[in-house]
């Protein structure tokens, strides 16, 4: 019977050694009792350098010896835990996603933990490219354009949510600081619908520009948008609005004391 059990353990280790994913097992003191070939290759260490040592010494990850350690939580609470982590390998920080589960004996007692890890370097790079593309698209979709000396406009197209509103505000305030403009026109002709949230975002933007000594005019208010604002009972306060960009530009010239004279 013992011989058969030993053969089964050997077979299990052979199977784990053939997995391309790093696998490691520890006892309740978090000392490594097993690591497969992929785990050794990932860490760049031999089995003798890892086995019997604290897993924190073997991994040296950002979660090691902290409350974020999934292995520690899995053993303590008897349930699997997973998270993203960073492991320093060969002088570089390698992002991984790892899952730790309690290791039980035949009687169901927790005798350690089992962990496997996935190298997610390419996934993290892809996510960063997506974030960069998203930032670029937001910047392109809400450009701040100087129309005249002291007059800037920002055309808005699409949906205005919290993230977009913050980007709009940051762009407008940066443009005010850059150009020292006194009037900025926020053209919402391309915004299909205005609800309470959108209106509140617009009001906050106008207040922020006013704090920098710049008057904000909202143009492009369509009949549907005007009706929606009235039906929703939204108080736009003293925010100056216009139905067209042309009218808003005329108001901007008036505020600046400028006149357009036809030759």
What can you see in these coordinates?
With 263 residues, the protein is of the alpha/beta class. The protein folds into 2 domains: 2-119, PAS domain (Beta-Lactamase, 2-Layer Sandwich); 142-255, STAS domain (Transcription Regulator spoIIAA). Helix content is 44%, strand content 25%. The chain is built from 10 helices and 10 strands. Strands 2-1-5-4-3 form a 5-stranded antiparallel β-sheet, with helices on both faces. A hairpin with a 4-residue loop joins strand 1 (23-27) and strand 2. The longest helix has 21 residues, at 121-141. The model has no long low-confidence stretch (mean pLDDT 86).
Give a concise summary.
With 263 residues, the protein is of the alpha/beta class. 44% of the residues lie in helices and 25% in strands. It has a five-stranded antiparallel β-sheet with strand order 2-1-5-4-3, sandwiched between helices. A five-stranded mixed β-sheet has the order 6-7-8-9-10, sandwiched between helices.
């Amino acid at each position: 019977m013992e011989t058969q059990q030993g053969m089964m353990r050997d077979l299990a280790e052979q199977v784990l050694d053939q997995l391309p994913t790093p696998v490691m097992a520890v006892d309740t003191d978090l000392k490594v009792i097993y690591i497969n070939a992929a785990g050794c290759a990932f860490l760049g260490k031999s089995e003798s350098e890892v086995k019997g040592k604290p897993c924190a010494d073997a991994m040296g990850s950002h979660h090691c010896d902290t409350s974020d350690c999934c292995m520690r939580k899995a053993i303590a609470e008897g349930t699997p835990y997973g998270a993203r982590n960073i492991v320093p390998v060969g002088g570089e920080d390698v992002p991984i996603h790892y899952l730790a589960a309690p290791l039980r004996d035949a009687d169901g007692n927790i005798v350690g933990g089992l962990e496997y890890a996935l190298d997610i370097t390419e996934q993290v790079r892809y996510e960063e490219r997506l974030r960069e593309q998203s930032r670029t698209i937001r910047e392109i979709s809400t450009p701040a354009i100087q129309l005249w000396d002291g007059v800037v406009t920002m055309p808005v197209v699409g949906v205005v949510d919290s993230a977009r509103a913050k980007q709009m505000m940051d762009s407008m305030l940066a443009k005010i600081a850059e150009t020292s403009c006194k009037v900025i026109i926020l053209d919402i002709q391309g915004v299909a619908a205005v609800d309470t949230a959108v209106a509140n975002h617009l009001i906050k933007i106008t207040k922020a520009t006013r704090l920098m000594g710049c008057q904000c005019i909202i143009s492009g208010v369509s009949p549907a948008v005007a009706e929606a604002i009235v039906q929703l009972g939204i108080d736009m306060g003293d925010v100056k609005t216009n139905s067209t960009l042309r009218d808003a530009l005329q108001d901007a010239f008036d505020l600046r004391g400028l006149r357009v004279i036809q030759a």
